Fold this sequence. Notes:
Largest sheet: 5 strands, parallel
CATH architecture of the largest domain: 3-Layer(aba) Sandwich
Strand content: 15-25%
Order of helices and strands: HEEEHEHEHEHEH
Structural class: alpha/beta
Oligomer: single chain
Number of domains: 2
Amino acid sequence: MKSEKHFRLKPKEILQIHTFFYLWHYTTALSINLNNHLKTGGIDTSLSYKDSMITAGDKRRILIVDDDPDISSLYKLSLERDGFVVDTFNDPLMALSDYKVGTYGLLLIDIKMPRMNGLELYQKLKNMGDKPKVCFITAFEEYNKQFRELFPDLKEKVSFLRKPIELQYLTRVVKSELGYS
């Protein structure tokens, strides 16, 4: 009879088993998704979220750009809890490079960030041909004047949210900007 130590798995064997089940699960899920797409006659590019379908151009999609990861994560969690789909970036240059025109209903952009401030980021996004609604987030008030100087012909209403922002207030502002209230 073999001793107990012969029945112990070695780390290499555990890794092989884990890898097998991970690949099996991934392949099965992929197969199910492909079968569903074949039945409907096309590939569905929407995202399922809380029993609703959110498409790329849905106005419930929000982009948050804030250099403070804790703040952007807090805003994201709060807004997702309230039914929004939220993408966050902590680097304005990364947000600019990954930005897709027509994707977001609202942008929440911190003004004071390293490498590019929020006003510059918004200007570059507008130059891409997009006209998203925007709320600027700031701890200071002097940016409203600077914004009007940068965008003198802007007819749209632009909101400035002052930090710290109460999460319920943030949700009310977002809903108001998107026309939910």
